[in-house]
Amino acid sequence: xxxxxxxxxxxxxxRKVAKxxxxxxxxxxxxxxxxRDTMYANNGMGLAATQVGVLxxxxxxxxxxxxxELINPEIVSSEGEQEEEEGCLSVPNFSDxxxxxxxxTVKAKDRYGYSIQISGEKYFARCASHEIDHxxxxxxxxxxxxxxxxxxxxxxx
Length: 157
Ligand code: NI
Prior knowledge:
Layout: H1 26-41, E1 46-48, E2 58-63, E3 66-79, E4 82-88, E5 91-100, E6 103-109, E7 115-121, H2 122-135, H3 147-154
Antiparallel strand pairs: 1-2, 2-3, 3-6, 4-5, 6-7
Bound molecules: nickel (II) ion.
């Protein structure tokens, strides 16, 4: 296991659409384990493989002790709205309010390729929405409330 470098805003790889995982093998396990080390080392609550420069549809989250690994996650349904403050390890020195679904149901595979489906509110809905956006090249500043402040300072990249 090892820590990997987290790509920062402006790196064009953050804007790519990640590809589905087809092989549930040792390489995937290593990626997942490295992502977990990287997330914890940076005190993050979620991380997408895109953020470590691997353009595969892999997401991990730690929401108050509940740890999730979501491979090829897809949103099955979403309900309602919530507006809370967010940050991102790839967007340093900024946090802002983002509108997200209040409740989200996600289907995915686990690391062994078994199908899973998870429904959650609050942190789960927000974090899963944020991380799945990463897999599609979307950063939270694209949709946050005061993003012009960020774009004025760092440019729109
Ligand atoms: Ni993020």
